[in-house]
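forwarding from the other thread:

> can someone predict this with dinuclear copper ion?

sure thing
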Amino acid sequence: MLHPAGEDAAAIANLFWVMAAGTVVIWLIVMGITVYAVLGKNRPKTERFADRFILLGGVAFPTVTLAALLIFGLALLPDWVRTDRPDLRVHISAEQYWWRVAYEMPDGSLVNTANELHLPAGQTAEFVLNSTDVIHSFWIPNLGGKMDVIPGRTNLWRLRPTDTGVFRGVCAEFCGPSHALMAFPVVVHEPADFQTWLVDEASAVAEREGHDLFVSAGCGACHAVRGTSAGGAVGPDLTHFASRRTMAAGILPITADNLQSWLIDASHHKPDVRMPSYASLTATERDTLVTYLLDLK
Ligand code: CUA
């Protein structure tokens, strides 16, 4: 959060540094007075002096300081959060323990994906936040502040990234044993590159070798692969799974070994996960599934 790459984060970092500097100054003043009181050659003070000192130091100073801080903080609230039309709308649903992500296309249709967020730099993205189970919180420290994701209500949240790069998004509200294991990479592109990415992401994939096993083993009941008969909506969409930077919501790099291990016992990596164990498949069958998944580019 102290390396801002978004307008909201820059305002927060600015506020942090002003408050940190103010804190140091006030701390030095209080320590100076304390040292003077303990070690200084004190002439007895009159009661009138003591009353004034308490009134100034204990009432007037905090009131003025806090009022100034409030005015400064309110002025930092960016106008575009309230007024601009967003350039992009992304629907985010937080689940135990992953992120459902859907990009709203100009025709109103949604492009489903999961556990990775792509944004165009210099444009305002509006997030439509929902949860299906417990309270989570959506936070990308480099881009801005956090917003709770609450079951049964829709929270709107806007961010405007300024720098391209890859950042880390996290869940910032304790939501269960694997709360710390639901992260998501955030890739900020130049706007033209973002459009290219979105068109790729919106494309379907063809059924290929391994698809039949993917469906017969039950994977397709929970996971969708657009363009095939696998249309489950319980778990993360896997259409372009292999083009993502991580698997299992930001916790593992996508490798054959990690996929094998995940299929055998996902709860070893992520306690309380809803992904069942596929240890009952043969090693050859798991190999086939891993190859199939690594091919979903
Ligand atoms: Cu979701 Cu913490």
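The chain has a mean pLDDT of 93. thats all i got for now
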